[in-house]
Specification:
CATH superfamily of the largest domain: Spore Coat Polysaccharide Biosynthesis Protein SpsA, Chain A
Largest sheet: 8 strands, mixed
CATH architecture of the largest domain: Alpha-Beta Complex
Distance between the termini: 65 Å
Number of domains: 3
Helix content: 25-40%
Strand order of the largest sheet: 2-17-11-14-10-3-4-5
Structural class: alpha/beta
């Protein structure tokens, strides 16, 4: 029989009160309601509640809640459009520049200076799946998951770097892949990689780590209880990557490996160019602390955040679409004919390791999180409350120098966010973007296509192991006919 615990009964069979010191600490922060149902709990449940509360850094969480609630509704500095000089646009880039950046990037990769950082904490809930999003198969002819497509792009970039520097690819530098999961996706992600033998990568070049969680609160900042013995918590947003890298000592791990540059991206983009040598070369050439790939906003109401300058001569940062006044969203620059606020953030970033260290310390002190009003599971059923999150782009105001690199959305941005049948950003729409791009590559390399359904509804898939961005396809494609849909491999 289980012995009564220190939070169980006293010698007379009367329920002991909550641990006094812990209750006093909760009172200090106005959170004593967490123990409201104490006397209705079993001894095991009281144990669980005490452990749950003890696991929380109450002073840090209190600071975050107070700072974040206080910042609500405060006037933000006025925003200005990003100066044209901060953006490398597609039309102004010369072929010579692109080739120079490509070579610079490959050299840095072969020298082991690049790591890849994947934000992969989300489940595919909106896709109708409880699996991690990266496990999702969007329906390409190969049946590959998003994780596999990304892993194979890393393998291809490694091979290109080895060939460019005439190194034996077996002994040349590996690109280390750091994958941020959440408590909801960690175990399933690790198992998926293990069961697929890391998609051809070496197991030691992949590191998994978890983002943190933070309590969900009511509008007055009180903890919401998910059960009578557990505080409701949610992941701390993709910006949680900075504190997670710090607390897991992975920033030191990167430094010990000689890594200087980090390519950071979100998992749900089927066209993401992981470890893109051109972007890396551009980043090194510009000598900036932070950079982002951007695409032109398609229309004023498109639901994407945009880069802006915060205040006169202030830092570049991102304003979410929901926070951008409609008149500003529709304003046109008469000189260029473009929207004044046209540079969309699509979560494709490059940072120096020095800058990541600076951000991890700065954001921790800042303590202002974004508040998202959501339905939170609670002891009273689903209740409206606040989730606190940091976003990856919260780093940009800390950057002494930032550069934006325009890419074409049809080449690098195929978001997978909503289930098939939705209006935008579905597996089907992403699949078509991939097939159309790869079809253009094959035709440009001298290949031909036959198809039994209209070509606009199909196409071919080029394995990332064959070609990173359409290069080196002539030997495979010239003069050959492919029947769409199919996958082209070696």
């Amino acid at each position: 029989m289980r012995e009564p615990s220190s939070v169980g009964f006293d010698g007379n069979g009367v329920v002991s009160p909550p641990p006094q010191a812990l209750l006093e600490r909760l009172k200090d922060y106005g959170q004593e309601d967490a123990f409201a149902l104490w006397y209705e709990l079993s001894p095991e449940e009281r144990d669980l509640l005490v452990k749950d509360i003890e696991s929380l850094d109450l002073s840090r969480i209190d600071r975050i809640i107070r700072c974040s609630l206080r910042s609500q509704g405060l006037p933000a500095a006025a925003i200005e459009p990003v100066p044209e000089s901060s953006v490398s646009t597609v039309e102004e880039r010369s072929q010579e520049e692109r080739e120079r950046w490509w070579k610079m990037g490959l050299k840095a990769i072969s020298d082991g200076k690049l790591a890849v950082l994947l934000l992969s904490g989300g489940q595919g809930t909106r896709l109708g799946s409880s699996d991690p999003k990266g496990c999702f198969n969007i329906g390409l002819p190969s049946g590959k998951s998003l994780f596999q497509l990304q892993a194979e792009r890393i393998l291809c970039a490694q091979r290109l770097a080895a060939q460019a520097t005439n190194e034996n690819s077996a002994s040349s530098a590996q690109i280390h892949w750091y994958i941020m999961t959440s408590p909801f996706t960690d175990e399933a992600t690790r198992k998926f990689f293990e069961s697929h033998k890391f998609f051809g990568l070496e197991a030691e070049q992949v590191t998994f780590f978890q983002q943190g969680t933070i309590p969900c609160v009511s509008k007055d900042g009180r903890f919401i209880m998910e059960t009578p013995y557990r505080v409701a918590k949610a992941p701390d947003g993709n910006g949680g990557v900075y504190s997670a890298l710090k607390s897991t000592k992975l920033l030191e791990d990167m430094a010990s490996k000689g890594i200087k540059y980090i390519d950071c991206y979100g998992v749900d983009n089927a066209l993401v160019r992981v470890a893109d040598p051109t972007f890396l070369g551009y980043f090194i050439d510009k000598g900036v602390s932070a950079a982002a790939k951007v695409v032109r906003k398609a229309y004023p109401q498109e639901k994407v955040g945009v880069f802006v300058r915060r205040g006169k001569g202030g830092p570049l940062t991102v304003v979410e679409y929901s926070e951008l006044d409609q008149s500003l969203a529709s304003a046109v620059n008469q000189a260029t004919g473009r929207l004044r606020f046209c540079w969309s953030n699509v979560c494709l970033h490059m940072f120096t390791l020095d800058f990541l260290n600076q951000v991890a310390n700065g954001l921790e002190k800042d303590s202002v999180y974004h508040l998202a009003e959501k339905k939170i599971p609670s002891i009273h059923g689903y209740t409206m409350g606040l989730k606190l999150e940091q976003f990856i782009f919260d780093a940009f105001p800390y950057a002494p120098t930032t550069a934006l690199f325009e890419v074409l959305r049809e080449e690098e941005f195929a978001p997978v966010k909503n289930a098939n049948g939705s209006n935008v950003d579905t597996p089907d729409s992403a699949k078509l973007l991939v097939l159309r791009l790869h079809t253009r590559w094959v035709v440009a390399a001298g290949g031909f296509l036959t198809h039994s359904v209209p070509l606009y509804a199909t196409g071919v898939e080029v394995s990332p192991l064959c070609s990173y961005a359409g290069e080196n396809l002539e030997p495979i494609c010239r003069g050959r006919t492919f029947h769409a849909p199919c996958e082209i491999t070696f």
